[in-house]
Structure formats: C-alpha cells, structure tokens
Amino acid sequence: MSVTFTADYRPASAFAASCGCRPATELAVRHRTYEKALAEVLDAPAERDALPGCEMPDICPHYPLYVHDADPEAYAPEVNVSEQNADRLAHLLGFGALDPAGTAVASAPGAGDTTSAADREPATGDAGQMPAEQFLGRVLAALALTPEDAGVDGYFRGRWHTGGRRAGYLQQRLLELHALALWCAAHGRDVVWG
Q1: What are 62-77's pLDDT values in tens digits?
Q2: CA-based diameter of the chain, in Å?
Q3: d(Cα 129, Cα 120) in Å, to the nearest integer?
Q4: What are the φ/ψ torsions at residue 98 (nearest 5 degrees)?
C-alpha cells in the first residue's frame, strides 16, 4: 500500500481526444464537453499519423484515441510514498505521535486540522485534506526541525524483504511536499492525501 499526496479533485472543464501522452494532450483541440471529445475519437480514421507533440511518434498511430482531461490544472503534482514512509512523514508533519515500533498513531486534531467541510473526518496521517497554506506551514516546520535523515537498512523476515530508506529520503520527500503545497496555494486548491 502507498499514500499519495496531491491537489484536491476538481471536475474537468475541458477535454481532448489524445493517445494519452501529456504533450499530445496539451496540443490537442479542446472540447467543452466530454461528448464532443468522444465524437472526435469515434470519427478518427482507423489509420492515422502520430499526433502532434507525441512522445512516442513511432507507436502513436497504433494506439487508440481516448478522451482525456485537458484542463491546464489537470496535471497537479503528486508525491507517492510507501505506507511505512507515510507514517514517518505524518509524524514529521505533526499528525500523530510515534508508537514504540516507530509507526505514527492517531492523535486528537488540533485547530485548523479538519477538512473544509464540517461533516468530514479530521486530517490524519493516513488520509486527509487541508488548505495549502496550513499544509505548507507544517512542511516548513518539518523541514526546519527534522535532522538529516540517516536512512534505514532493509531486512529480510523469512523470504519477505522489508525495504529500507536511503539517507536523505525524508528531506527529499519534504521538499517534494513543499513544491506540492506551493502549487496548490498558487492554484487555490487544498492538499489531499490518502
């Protein structure tokens, strides 16, 4: 299992018929509705040339076209971490204390640690939503207070390998979360994870 940090979901306001690679989708004709983009997909000839800007022009003509979200904000940054590393990051971000095994445990939410809707669960280490500015504050505090990550060696438990963590990993991920929080703040979106 893993935990992904990204921007909150926003419904698409533009669609494009594309092979799926980002450059081709960005250059494709925008449609205001899914149905219009789907009509372009259905009207596409069986044999076609590579789409303008496609990253794989040699194989693009062999891929079918699909409707893709073509919003300028559709490509929000994502930070994906393993569940074990997510527990460690949750602790560094102040979402819970660590138990003796080093796993973050739930704690009572502090002020401002709830999602924007009053009926939603409070933010925790496993899943949550928080305004970008508040999340950015937690990341900056974690960057300032976290000593350099020395890493952890992986080990075998029978045939099962429990992966370690390379030196500097936590700082790298905190910097990625910092960039995500800045992007979300600039685009007026909350940071979500789960």
Answers
A1: 989 999 988 767 678 9
A2: 62
A3: 9
A4: -95, 140
